[in-house]
Design a protein that fits this description.
Blueprint lengths: L42 H17 L9 H16 L3 E9 L2 E9 L4 E11 L9 H20 L6 E8 L7 H8 L3 H5 L1 E7 L10 E2 L4 H14 L4 E2 L9 H6 L4 E5 L8 H7 L23 H19 L1
Parallel strand pairs: 3-4, 3-5, 5-8, 6-7
Antiparallel strand pairs: 1-2, 2-4, 6-8
Helix pairs in contact: 1-2, 1-3, 3-9, 6-9
Length: 314
């Protein structure tokens, strides 16, 4: 998550409930087609990706920052997984701070390409650490959701596109480059962009972006189904990769579990954790490692990612 630009971070998604209608249908009315429920996203799979990102950082100077070897190795890891799963992947190159940066875009074959649902996260860390919560957590959850689409051979009505952004920590550089290089016609084809930035904070809150009402409702309904209260995300307003999309008129939404702001007593009462302590005490620090993750928050939010992708692309 970008330190000083306003923006939103991640939040969590929803669990779809299916009802059986027994008798009593209106004569002559065909039943509405059932929307397939999203699969459970195994948190163990998401954590395995985080372990790989940690190993990449450890082998490359302790970070995965823009223009550094650890970032490119992270991108290569994600791309290899997607290529093996049947995605059409593309690397978009840009320059920032005299260093080459990369975005990774992955399209799932099929669906109406005039209605594109995108889910994305920034893959870069700051130079001071491995960036496992910020933002390995969002990157791994989006990756595992994309792999779940492949495992299920999901064929949604809308076209699915996933993205991993470079140089977010330098000012949303990668995502802004992507949006600015879209034609107005292609921007208009994106029916929604979902952003996931920091979704496994160790002292977590459950925050939902309040941008597009339909996307917001999808996430809030999901958490209501879990019995988990949510709050509107305010700490990261404008500080993550949804901001360029929103500025271009694309409907956006997302989830977030908190950064350097302190959890209040009221928030600790409803979510657990420690009041008066930051949601993520290791935000932008060297201690943002695989030990800096709350498994329950990561699990809930990863399932929420999948739920929103399935629900909004149907």
């Amino acid at each position: 998550m970008k330190l000083s630009v306003p923006g939103r971070v991640t939040a969590t998604a929803v669990v779809a409930a299916a009802s059986l209608l027994v008798g009593g249908s209106i004569a002559g009315a065909a039943p509405a087609p059932a929307v397939a429920a999203a699969p459970d996203i195994p948190v163990s799979n998401v954590k395995a990706h985080l372990t790989q990102l940690q190993s990449i950082a450890t082998a490359n100077g302790g970070n995965r920052a823009h223009g550094r070897a650890g970032y490119k190795a992270s991108l290569d890891y994600v791309k290899a997984k997607l290529d093996a799963a049947g995605y059409t992947t593309a690397i978009q190159q840009f320059t920032s701070s005299s260093r080459t940066g990369y975005n990774l875009i992955a399209d799932w074959p099929g669906g109406d390409t005039n209605q594109v649902v995108m889910a994305g996260s920034h893959l870069d860390s700051v130079t001071s650490g491995a960036g496992i919560n910020d933002n390995g957590s969002g990157s791994a959850a989006v990756l595992e959701t994309a792999l779940a689409v492949s495992r299920a051979n999901h064929q949604p009505t809308k076209h699915l596109r996933f993205a991993w952004w470079g140089a977010e920590e330098l000012g949303l550089v990668g995502s802004r480059h992507y949006v600015n290089n879209l034609s107005s016609a292609n921007r208009a084809k994106i029916s929604g962009y979902l952003n996931f930035d920091m979704i496994g904070s160790p002292n977590p809150g459950y925050f939902v972006y309040d941008d597009d009402p339909a996307i917001e409702k999808t996430f809030k309904d999901y958490f209501t189904g879990l019995g988990v209260p949510t709050e509107i995300e305010t700490e990261g307003d404008g500080r993550s990769d949804h901001a360029p999309f929103k500025s271009a008129g694309v409907p956006v939404g997302g989830l977030f579990t908190g950064a350097s702001r302190a959890k209040t007593a009221a928030q600790a009462a409803k979510w657990g954790g420690t009041s008066g302590q930051a949601f993520d005490r290791c935000y932008h620090s060297s201690c943002d490692t695989t030990s800096n993750i709350n498994d329950t928050a990561l699990d809930r939010n990863s399932d929420a990612v999948a739920h929103a992708v399935w629900e909004l692309s149907s």
